C-alpha cells in the first residue's frame, strides 16, 4: 500500500504553525483513513515515476480576498499559513491553518495532494462565526437584516478513482494541455441545532492548458526565483458548478500554486506574502 507518511513528514512544520496561530480544531486522527486504495495507486504510479522536485516548497503565508455575491459587494479576507512536505510516495502532505480577518472564524486542514493540482485525501474542521447582512423582503420593500451565527463543521474526502490524460501532469511542458478526473467519497458534518452528517459521491473534472513560455517566478511569488509556467484550468464538480482556476507551476518545486479561482457566485484571489523553498 502507498501509506501516507504524512504525520512524520509534517510534524515539525505543523507544530510551528500551531504554536504561532491559535486553533482548537481537530482533523484526521486515524492512520487507516489516510491510505489510498491499491487500484488508485496503480493509476498514480506513472505520474509519480522519476518525480523528484529539486527545490520543494516548504511553507507559504497567504491572504485570500473573497468576493462573494452574497456579501453584496463587501470583500472579506482570509489569512492562511501552510506547510508542505514531499513524501516518499511522490505525493505531497499539506497542513494549513487560518482564519477570517473580520471575526473569530478559523479552521485547520490536512491533505494528500498530487503536485498541488488534485486533492486525493483531505480532512478539515473549523468554526464559522457569521455576521452578515442580507436583503429580506418586507411587503414590496427589501430591507437589510443582520444575521449572526456560529457553526462547527468538518469535511473529509477520499479518492475512489482517478484518471489522467497524460503521465506528465506534474512535469508539464509549455503549451501542453491535459485533463484529470477524481472520483471521491465526501463526508460533511455540521454541528449545532440543525446539525447533520452527510456522505455523498463527488466527481471532479479538471481541464488545463499550460502557457506557451516560461516567465520569472518572482513576478507571481515573492523571493522564489527560477522560472514559472502559468496554467489555466476549468473545473467542474459533478458535471456542473463550473469554476476557472489560475495556477503558476514551479518546475523546480514540481508544484502548482493557486493564484485565483472564479465561479458564477464567488471570486477568490490569493496573494502570497511569504514563500519558502528548500535550498
Average pLDDT: 83
Percentage of residues in DSSP E strands: over 45%
- Domain count: the total is 1
End-to-end Cα distance:
31 Å
Overall outline: globular
List keywords for this structure.
mainly beta, two-stranded antiparallel sheet, 9% helix, globular
Report on the architecture of this protein:
By secondary structure, this protein is mostly beta strands. Helix content is 9%, strand content 59%. A hairpin with a 7-residue loop joins strand 3 and strand 4.
Question: How is this fold's topology laid out?
Answer:
Layout: E1 2-3, H1 6-20, E2 35-36, H2 38-48, E3 57-68, E4 76-86, E5 92-100, E6 106-114, E7 118-138, E8 141-164, E9 177-190, E10 196-210, E11 215-216, E12 227-237, E13 240-250, E14 255-263, E15 266-277
Antiparallel strand pairs: 1-2, 3-4, 3-15, 4-5, 5-6, 6-7, 7-8, 8-9, 9-10, 10-12, 11-12, 12-13, 13-14, 14-15
What is the compact description of this entry?
With 279 residues, the chain is mainly β. It has two helices and 15 strands.
